[in-house]
Amino acid sequence: MDDLIGRIIKGIAGFYYVDVVGAGVYECKAKGIFRKEQIKPLVGDNVKIEITHEADMEGNITEILPRKNALIRPALANIDQLIVIFAIKQPDINYHLLNAFLVWMGYQNLPCIICFNKSDIVSSKQMTFIRNYFKGTGYEIVFTSAKNKQGIDNLKELMKGKISALAGPSGVGKSSIINLIMGTDRMETGALSKKTSRGKHTTRCSVMMQAGEDSFIIDTPGFSSITLPDIPPEELSICFPEYSAYIDKCQFVKCSHISEPGCAVKEALDQGAFSTYRYEEYKLLYDELKNRKNIRRKR
Question: What is the pTM of this model?
Answer without folding.
Answer: 0.88
